[in-house]
Amino acid sequence: LRHLTTLENLPRDCIERLLDRAITMRDACAHGTRKLDLLSGRTILNLFFEPSTRTRTSFELAARRLGADVINFDIGFSSTSKGEELFDTLHTLEAMHLDAIVVRHKVSGTPDELVRHAMSGVSVINAGDGNRAHPTQGLLDALTIRQHRPDFSRLIVAICGDVKHSRVARSDVHALAKLGAKEIRLCGPAALMPDASEFPACTFYEDFDQAIEGADAVIMLRLQKERMASIDLPDEAAYFRQYGLDSRRLALAARGCLVMHPGPINRGIEIAPEVADGPQSRILEQVGNGVFVRMAVLGEMLAR
Ligand code: CP
Q1: CB neighbours of 278 closer than 8 A, spacing ≥ 6?
Q2: Mean pLDDT of 41-54
Q3: CA–CA distance from 211 to each of 103, 160, 161, 214, 270 (Å)?
Q4: Is 106 known as a binding-site position?
């Protein structure tokens, strides 16, 4: 694996290998090995043009646990604010001999553009680009589901909310479909649903009660207002009534349905607090798995 910009073209065996490797990393950490030296001498740059809590922190933690040096590039205090163009920034940073750049950008396709313009052998890892892809989130969601529901041939997953603007939904679908999920349901108001032709592996629902019925896992998505130009949204209370996950709706799902959310969650808009904090919630487990998946990806790419 040289770069990771999307899961779309990643073979199933590569996805499975990364998930297995994440479990190895988890077990190593659980047995008290807080730091491995797999990436000693390597330098990894976090280049985030959009805000992040989970992804940036877990990439940093993952890199440090593997013994790499990490630089968190501060966009606000960088020469980007003086008008430096993205590829000039890239070449400037490459001249400092980096091994990998972890990039998040609001424009879809930016990580692939960096791959095309890179002049050194730097690896590029997508930490989320526009509404296109968030591959490590797709991997950590697949890992979280696999830990509880290992037989994907019987797995029904419902992904609900602002699917149209969600890079997480796209990467989740790529991962789950590759791993052989029985059924992937996408649900949301018509204005927030993508074109069905983009998701041939999925079934589409406008009614959340129908979408969640019998589901083994439900992945809730927040309204990505920062990516909406002119969509006429219902008010938040009305949205919650139609598309919020509360205890009544969760009772329609399969027994023990996994409640998931990539975060950040918006309580009372797409998910009720009692469900987000309830016994079926795997939201914080997803966060923990994010560190192990990112250790697996960095190890796979950069270990000598
Ligand atoms: N899931 C996710 O990408 O969260 P952050 O925006 O906090 O990184």
Answers
A1: 247, 250, 259
A2: 96
A3: 34, 8, 11, 8, 15
A4: no
Distance CA 154, CA 207 (A): 22
Can you tell me the mean pLDDT for 81-99? 93
pLDDT band at 76 (very low <50, low <70, confident <90, very high): confident
pLDDT band at 234 (very low <50, low <70, confident <90, very high): low
Distance 270 CA to ligand 1 centre (A): 16
Structural domains of the chain, ranges and CATH numbers in brackets: 12-133+287-302 (3.40.50.1370), 135-282 (3.40.50.1370)
Q: Exposed, middle or buried: residue 246 (CB in 10 Å: 0-12, 13-18, 19+)? A: middle
Of ligand 1's listed atoms, the one at least distance from the Cα of 55 is: 8
Query: DSSP letters of 218-279?
Result: EEE----GGG-SS--PPPHHHHHHHH-B-HHHHTTS-TTPEEE--S---BTTTB-HHHHTST
Whole-number pLDDT of residue 231: 61
Pair 58, 290: CB distance under 8 Å: yes
Q: How far apart are CA 108 and CA 125, in angstroms?
A: 14
- State whether the beta carbon of 263 lies less than 6 angstroms from ligand 1: yes
Residue nearest atom 4 in ligand 1 by C-alpha distance: 54
Atom of ligand 1 nearest to the CA of 57: 8
DSSP state of 81: G
ipTM of the prediction: 0.98
Per-residue pLDDT for 171 more than 70? yes
Is 137 labeled as ligand-binding?
A: yes
Exposed/middle/buried for 245, CB within 10 Å: 0-12, 13-18, 19+? buried
Measure the CA–CA gap between 49 and 74, rounded to whole angstroms: 9
Supply the pTM of this predicted model. 0.96
Does residue 280 have its Cβ closer than 6 Å to ligand 1? no
What DSSP character marks residue 281? B
Average pLDDT over residues 88-100: 95
